[in-house]
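Entry for the shared binder. Reason: the reviewer on the internal report wants the predicted structure included alongside the sequence.
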Amino acid sequence: MSLKPRGSPAYSRVLLKLSGEALMGDDAYGINRDTLRRVVGEIQTVVDLGVEVGVVIGGGNIFRGVAGGSLGMDRATADYMGMLATVMNALALQDAMRHAGMNSRVQSALNIEQVCEPYIRGKAIRYLEEGKVVIFAAGTGNPFFTTDTAAALRGSEIGAEIVMKATKVDGVYSADPKKDAGAERYHRISFDEAIARNLKVMDATAFALCRDQSLPVNVFSIFSPGAFKRVVLGEDEGTLVHC
């Protein structure tokens, strides 16, 4: 197998899982415009490398289905409301990309044709091949599944080489680094090791799907400037969970 030249991307097609909370910045709720522009800038640096990027975005900055269910709301209803929140975030992300001169498409797992097009796998792949960023909204389109599962599912469907989970923490640790100063960041860990050590990388359904599809996951901090690009270049950034 030939080695890729130094400085060239390690992956040609990636799926970025972006939480809704990542768009809040220092705000308590909603979308912080400066943070949104910065996130778009991080994505643009990867697109400029010629890498095909799909994005699954959450809605926790607007509404969390699990939280709604825990407060007495019907869980399915709360989850559908959470899916609609992800559509709002997807549209905001697309608008910010347009202002940055980037080409993107929003595809929703819920049918909202007046707002965005429905998810169609073949069209999504064609858009990626054309160099467009595809933003996948509304999770899986079904209640009781998280956007982690949507990321694992869409990543598998579009043939992504890796799922990159952008979080507030710069990797997976042996303990909560905010509570334990001696917590160790894992640079690489296998799916089986993560399960054995009960590390909460993703929800169980998403994690099992990635493991079964031999789809690696990299957990990194979206708040670390240039981290997304460094992961794509194959540098030691975050935590790589592999088979």
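Summary line for the report: The helical segments are 33-47, 65-70, 75-99, 121-129, 147-157, 191-196, 204-212, 227-232.
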